Amino acid sequence: MSNALIIVDVQNDFCEGGSLAVGGGAGVAAGITRLLAAEPDRWDHVVATKDYHIDPGTHFGDPPNFVDSWPQHCVVGTPGSEFHPNLATDRVEAIFHKGEHAAAYSGFEGHADGGECLADWLRRHGVDRLEIVGIATDHCVRATALDAVREGFDTTVLLDLTAGVAPDTTDVALRALTGAGVATRGKPVIRAA
Fold first, then answer.
1. Which end of the chain, N or C, is surrounded by fewer C-beta atoms within 10 Å?
2. Domain that holds residue 85
3. Other CB atoms closer than 10 Å to residue 190's CB: what's the count?
4. CATH number for the domain including 150?
5. How many domains would you assign to the chain?
6. Residue 180 domain-assigned (yes or no)
């Protein structure tokens, strides 16, 4: 069996200057790049997820309520949907797009270009252990980690390489992760965007 790193939604729109910026996002991107360079043999596989919206319906709000609806973000074909330039992507073997036509928070809702879902890709590559990093701790990282455990993967979130939107929602997310059996290391970045 093998292990994998999942990089969740480290995209321009979720970093400083983006339409749905999370404070510390650019630093998280740079930190992931440093870790990949410092420990090149730590993971057998590295994959990434992308929010990838075409027309996600009520996921975009006008005005948004920041609970179930959000400002327009990560629209396919826009610079905001691209990975942040601080993130080195040369190790990324597969990208899983999610949310084209509906809200999608978990990377396990995504699919690669050929249509394969994340869980199937990981199983096909013999992965049983996951480490998860990315944006945002209290939304897509949380959802991805919870689904990873439900799918039977031994899952750890490296909190030092995640950025949370707000302290209260991040605290709720951390309790949910612990309650579901997700291991955590470090503390998430939480600062104003």
1. N
2. 2-185
3. 20
4. 3.40.50.850
5. 1
6. yes
The two beta strands, 127-135 and 94-98, are unpaired
**pLDDT, tens digit, 9 for 90 and up, residues 98-144:** 999 999 999 999 999 999 999 999 999 999 999 999 999 999 999 99
Known catalytic membership, residue 51: no
List alpha helices for the chain, DSSP H: 25-38, 118-124, 142-150, 167-180
pLDDT tens-digit readout, 168-193: 999 999 999 999 999 999 988 887 65
Based on the residue annotation, tell me whether 98 is a catalytic residue of this protein. yes
Does residue 80 have a pLDDT over 90? yes
Length of the chain: 193
In a domain, 192, yes or no: no
Nearest residue to 82 (alpha-carbon basis) of 131, 38, 92, 191: 92
DSSP bridge pairs for 2:
127
The active-site residue, picked from 74, 98, 138, 147, is 98
Active site (annotated) includes residue 62: no
In the chain, the amino acid numbered 163 is A
- The per-residue pLDDT of the chain, averaged, comes to 95
